[in-house]
Fold this sequence. Notes:
The chain is mainly alpha-helical. It has a domain of 99 residues: 2-Layer Sandwich (GCC-box Binding Domain), CATH 3.30.730.10. Helices cover 48% and strands 10% of the residues.
Amino acid sequence: MEGGDCCSTSTSAEKRKRRKQQQQQQQRQEKRYRGIRMRKWGKWVAEIREPNKRSRIWLGSYTTPVAAARAYDTAVFYLRGPSARLNFPELVFQEDDLQDFSTASIRKKATEVGARVDALQTALRASESNSSGVPEKPDLNEYPDPESSDQES
């Protein structure tokens, strides 16, 4: 046996270890919010434990950490009240339409907030990338406007 096989294996193992350390460092830098974590493939998820139970309430999977944190804030506010420790205390307000404090209603409200914030954050990122000269991706769910379309005669 030659030492070449051994060294190439250790080199690739070192590369994997280095890559994993870089990902963990990136996670630590980005994860400054309570109640969220990052999946291996880059999505941010939010969940919260139910009070006095071992079960968790799944709050959704989001593309941005801010959206996941806002979903968590909404759920923790409805579960624990105004004294809860929030990521964005200035942005959560109690609405009168959530009278039923069931797990399902809390999950629904939190995912609505998270999805709304996620859409806004994604649009903000898209507009920032458009200013850098990257062409905008068309919204495939939107009907085309016949007046603004480029028609060749």
